[in-house]
Amino acid sequence: MNKVFGIAAMLLTQQLYAQQQQAPAYPLITHDPYFSVWSATDNLTASTTRHWTGTDQSLTGLVKVDGITYRILGAKGENYEVLAGSSEDNPYSTQYTETAPAEGWQNEKFDDTQWQTGTAPFTNDKSIKGTQWLSREIWVRRTITLTDTNLDNLLLKINHDDNAEVYLNGELIYSYVGWLNHMQYFPVSEAARKKLKKGKNVLAMHCTNTQGGAWLDAGLVKIAKDAITGKIQVATQKDVIITATKTAYTFTAGKVDLTLTFTSPLLLNDLDLLSRPVSYITYKVQSNDGAVHDVQLYFGASSTLAVNTPSQEVTAQQYTREGLSILKTGTVAQPVLEKKGDDLRIDWGYLYVAVPAVANAKQYITKEVEAMASFVGKGAPKSTANTGKQLVLNTIIPLGKVDAAGKEQMIMLGYDDLYSIQYFNTNLKPWWKKDASYTIEKELSKAATDYSSIIERCRIFDDALYTDTRKTGGENYAKLCVLGYRQSISAHKLVKSPDGEILFLSKENFSNGCINTVDVTYPSAPLYLVYNPDLMKGMLNGIFYFSESGKYTQPYAAHDLGTYPLANGQVYGEGMPVEESGNMIILTAAIAKAEGNANYAQKHWKTLTTWAEYLLKEGFDPANQLCTDDFAGHLARNANLSVKAIVGLGCYAMLADQLGDNVTAQKYRQAAKEMVPKWMQLADDGDHYTLAFENKGTWSQKYNLVWDKVLGLDLFPAVVYEKEIKYYLTRQQPFGLPLDSRKGYTKSDWILWTAALANNQSDFNALVDPVYKYATGTPTRVPLSDWHETSDGKMVGFQARSVVGGYFMQLLSITIKK
Asked: Which pLDDT band holds residue 199 (cuts at 50, 70, 90)?
């Protein structure tokens, strides 16, 4: 059967409104790991907007032209009538067993009276109210009473982790190996619908938890009739343009043309602006037939942007302040910083929709099923709910008469998370909230006042970034950097430590949810070294503090500071001694090179020395340990990891030299230089160098070599780079160079580093172009994954991670101070 009903419908819609794919997913609102909304289709009206994790966070947009309504943002949503709700809808109890039942357990007449009774959901998450499920398998039988069996539009609503099979009155209606990360809807087969009867029916489920989290929750719904079907036309999307800070769509909506632009002004040299959690949504409308037309705009923002799951109760209000008309929503519970993990959305703080009062907007709050109908219908729109689940913040703006000269209107979307990060048991407010006088209303007001100047600053920056990256790497390289820019930044949160230091903390999105992971910082670094080394320090400060405070006592650098958003100490199961120590020393040296002084290194010299001593002792021929590519498993004598140790020692020597310690500089540089010929001998395999020392017939990308070139360390002879690049070009696949000889997958950030080793544009392009082909052709429609198969371009794992900041390595190699 069709595995994902929603995806099938989405693909059909894409075929109807096909656009040239420019990105795996399109950034709309991008600020931090929680405030991050994307479109997963080339046409903005072909899918519901969603959080980077894939959970729906609906933004909707309509335009009414002379009474005719057109949809320009978000897919037509389905409304569901609940027949037997999931736990999101209403708590329900059911029979279950964790011991394999007798044959026929899925049939309606099976005797389950000896089974236990529990309340959904079934999970091993102790923080969730439900039934604890800690074993490998569970069988559940739920009795459902129906009054009507004429249900052609019947759907199974389910979320499970991991493998699941579901039966309705003994008929298999769903089977899937794997897990879902949110509630999804699947059509119930005709054969199963024929077995329905008035009165009692049985939904029987079996779920197997193969690893990690456990979850099972399901119900039955039907698609409700939509009173406004046929009353809304779909505007014709003409184009979409992505720049570093903006995504702009152009439409024709009958007799007007419209440009809808999403701007997140993430300018790295302005920390106050960077941290302000406000995005602009700009409408530009003009007549396309020479006549004058009456135009109204509608924008809807779902309260799902402020919850972790749709079942959470929210409250909402409308008010005016600071010259703005404002809508606000957030959860009733407000569990500030209570949750940590990967596949999570924020459920504390408040979402805001704000419009300058001079726009004469009409703002009101409705349930989701009433939202767009309130604009399409003839009745006066009004608030119908201020508390509940899945509310919508509605804004209508009358543009009045619009001619060929056109009119423009801006709406702001903001989020106040109250507290952003817990840092060694101290809750930290966001960077912009410097004291009690800084309120979100004032931030929104300042964003409105400075709108024109900020938009112009963004335009200038976008043009410069594209020009600079195109000049240094070509057009495809420039477009990859554009795709990586907002994604990388919005995987971080900017706060200030209790000691007043910058903390720019990443979330390891969809890999394990760690905060401030050093081997995520390392590949992300080039973007921040190019545009603001202070942010690079903000990515290292917490790791230095962890060691220097005595909270971490190992003689090598830590792996992480916890699980986002709780930075209370390392949670990863084991260290990566050579990896993380090398990373920290290299990045500290890169800061010194970018700034032209070693002041930052001097501040942490004792710690850097401890790590350098470790590399000197253990780094050249690494033990059986993990590196940043930990998904590939442990590897002893890792040749690329050895390169990192050698380069790290060279970097330490460079810093010592800058600090005037010539003796130490000479000692460590000589040690690094003496390691190089040994490395070349142990890794030699004729026309290339091996994956691991003395492991003939293997190979790997030696992306760590790039720092020798970028920082001008002059440790490895040019022949090493040249031999490797020449060999890599013989191993190319349609969607890029594999990571190494073990598998066909790759990491796109490492390919861009490897490409920077090339000594000519032709070889550089040969390595970069397949990555661009992947980015604009992958069938996996999520925010750019850095881990994909080189044969078919499909995502293997990870998405929306900060490491795509590594795409800027070529630009860094040209611009960093030599």
From this structure: very high
- For residue 48, what are its two tokens? 């519901």
CA pair distance 544, 535, nearest whole angstrom:
15
Q: What is the dihedral of CA 361, 362, 363, 369, to 10 degrees?
A: -130
Say yes or no to pLDDT of 9 above 60: no
pLDDT digits (tens, 9 = 90+) for 704-763: 999 999 999 999 999 999 999 999 999 999 999 999 999 999 999 999 999 999 999 999
Sign for the pseudo-dihedral over CA of 261, 264, 269, 270: positive
The most distant pair of C-alpha atoms in the chain lies apart, rounded to whole Å, by 88
At 818 the pLDDT is 60
What stretches of 543-615 adopt beta strand conformation (E)?
A: 566-567
Give the SS3 label for residue 781.
coil
Q: Which residues contact 268 (CB under 8 A, 6 or more apart)?
A: 274, 489, 527, 528, 531, 532, 535
Residue 264: closest CA among 495, 428, 488, 421: 488
**Mind spelling out the 3-state secondary structure of 699-732?**
CECCHHHHHHHHCCCCCCCHHHHHHHHHHHCCCC
* Strands 362-367, 566-567: pairing kind: unpaired
Which position has the token pair 């996996």? Answer: 780
Cα 31 to Cα 76: distance, rounded to the nearest angstrom: 26
Residue 2: its pLDDT value, please? 37
- Picking from 641, 587, 589, the residue whose alpha carbon sits closest to that of residue 615 is 641
- Other C-beta atoms closer than 10 Å to the C-beta of 674 total 11
pLDDT confidence of residue 544: 98
Which of 511, 539, 514, 546 has the alpha carbon at shortest distance from 525? 539
pLDDT higher than 60, residue 1: no
Sheet with 391-402, strands from edge to edge, namely 232-234, 68-73, 59-65, 293-302, 391-402, 362-367
Instruction: Give mean pLDDT, residues 186-198.
Output: 94
Rounded to whole angstroms, how far apart are CA atoms 734 and 741? 16
How much is the pLDDT for 340?
95
